[in-house]
Write a structure and sequence with these properties.
- The protein has 9 helices and 5 strands.
- It is an alpha/beta fold and 187 residues long.
- Strands 3-2-1-4-5 form a 5-stranded mixed β-sheet.
- Helix 7 packs across helix 9 and helix 8 packs across helix 9.
- The longest helix is centred in the C-terminal third of the chain and has 25 residues.
- The chain is globular and about 45 Å long.
- The N and C termini lie far apart (40 Å).
- 39% of the residues are buried.
């Protein structure tokens, strides 16, 4: 695993990156963890993750139980603003490959709201949602939550661990892309 600063070369050459946030509470500006997985030619070529110090380092018990992340773990972690500006996340997100997320609206909103409290406005980002794609590609699944789609595709998942979720999202995107290429080749 590399730090955000050391991911520039990966981001420059990746086809896409999968992004996942975890939060400390139901508040969308309470990011407590982020992971990014870089994919090139259908293979994971790198990944990075960081705990995040949410505003006030305030957590609710539901999210602690869900993610396993506690205030003690994030006490000395960087804020999302520090990751964004000081650690290079802004450059990765703004200048390089598009990102995918499972329920992209959630991750995009967490990013936007968590930066907004620091007065940072994010640019328009190229985003693909694997929930929306999986609804089209796997319409008969009972739902299109990350555990359901991952299980259907045989993808390992430790749900609500940002890195595991980002890896699963990346592999879902890879599988959907491969399925589409196969369908187009057959026509």
């Amino acid at each position: 695993m590399t730090s955000f600063r050391n991911t520039m070369q990966l981001a420059e050459h990746a086809d896409f990156m999968a992004l996942d946030f975890e939060t400390a509470s139901s508040s969308m500006e309470s990011a407590s963890s982020v992971a990014i997985v870089f994919v090139k030619d259908g293979e994971i070529v790198g990944e990075t993750q960081s705990l995040i110090h949410p505003p006030g380092n305030t957590f609710n018990s539901f999210n602690i139980e869900l993610t396993g992340i506690t205030p003690e773990m994030t006490q000395n972690a960087p804020t999302l603003a520090e990751l964004w500006e000081d650690k290079g996340m802004d450059i990765i997100m703004k200048e390089f490959c598009p990102f995918v997320a499972h329920n992209a609206v959630f991750d995009h909103t967490v990013l936007h709201k968590s930066l907004e409290i620091y007065g940072i406005t994010i640019p328009r980002l190229s985003t693909t949602c694997t929930v929306q794609l999986s609804r089209k590609v796997f319409p008969k699944l009972p739902n299109h939550k990350l555990p359901t789609v991952s299980k259907h595709l045989g993808i390992e998942l430790n749900h609500h661990d940002a890195l595991s979720d980002a890896r699963a999202c990346a592999m879902i995107m890879v599988r959907i892309e491969k399925m589409n290429r196969t369908l187009f080749a057959m026509q």
